[in-house]
Queue: 2 jobs
Job 1
Amino acid sequence: MSYYMREIRMNKKKFYQTFIDSISEGKKSFAILLDPDTFDNANAELFLKNIPPQTTHLFVGGSIVENGETNNTVLSLKKYSSLPIFLFPGDASQVSKEADVILFLSLLSGRNPEYLIGQQVEAISKLKNSSLEIISMGYILIDGGYESEVARVSNTSPMSQENVQAIVDTALAGEYLGAKLIYLEAGSGAKIPVNPIIVKAVKNEISIPLIVGGGIKTEVQKQQAYNAGADMVVMGTAFENN
């Protein structure tokens, strides 16, 4: 059983509070993001045996996922891991009651109402009677040097990495709106990750945890994100490809 899960079961704390406690103790979190549309569920045991020992969370979700595949992936992971499973859904169809947490995200970087509030409303009927812990999150898509699937599906444009102040203001607006987390995302498979300068600028302004992901493929890039202020780093494509 992982240290993270022992902490939750012993102290009977919710996942968000445990994350806050971890940050207050100076610990960094590390999540691996798995896309149900590409993840091989039959290979879950072998995959999990080879993930880094410092992994604290498993994220499950994608921009486009066939109906039911999210649930199948969550179940396959639960067979072989006690790590907390966080849903990172692209739309309401990706809700699985088998997971531990759902990141109830709003795409703050875009202005498409479907992803600001529309999909969230559609998901309510599945969430209100579930045991999922719901954590509101402001999701900010940053230009990673290519047109990401998130941008295509949501019909929104990523924010330029050169416009640091606009990104900072968007993150702070998300906090003021009630988000409990901010996620800076360059997009799965991005050519370039979020610049550490942006990470530091956002971290200096917000008072809620900061997650950074997209385009992080190396240990050096991961440490740069941590050093700039990320409380959690998310990697996905690098592990799915290896």
Note: Residues 8-12 have pLDDT under 50 and may be disordered.
Job 2
Amino acid sequence: MKKLLQISLALAASFGAGASAHAQAQAQAAAKGQTTVQTKVAMCIGCHGIPGYQASFPEVNKVPMIAGQNAKYIVAALNAYAKNERKHPTMGGTAERMSEQDMADVAAYYEAQAGVPPVPETVAAPSVQVAELLSKGACASCHGANFSKPIDGAYPKIAGQHADYLYVALKSYQAQGSAVYGRSNAIMAGQVKQFSHAELKAMAKYLASLPGEMRTVPQSKFR
């Protein structure tokens, strides 16, 4: 009986040690995964983790807010930069070094980072002029009535985005023949070519004024 009790205690101790080791391994794996993601987003922090940070190419404009953006869209954008369908020296060089898994991890990280509630389904109406422009461009048909609920995750949320960035992004679809600047997208190119720069700026200003789900979350490179 005494020997049986000793065996039972030994088995229990062994099981407990095994469970503890398993839990520790899980914790280490989770920590390693988090560290890996943090390493991957480190290349993004220098621009997208600084509120108000401005780029100088192709003209001075705030870099886009990506915290809270659709992950599927972020992946699509990174792939476009990697394939030179979006021409941008900095983003192209960054995206070319990323694997599909890197892109997916970074996109998932930023989609969840903002942590803000959904915006209202109904937003403030634009001026008559801007309403006509938005209707002409059929913007809501892809980006949603409140411009934060696109019909597909591969399309971006644009409500609340920086006006100067939106303006530069829209103009980039009009660019033709440049080796270093422009975006290739048949749908967007077809839409924006019908607008003047002043009209694009008016639409961008309105879209930026709307409540949005995206933010720039301050991050330090040295944490």
Note: The CA atoms of residues 133 and 195 lie 8 Å apart.
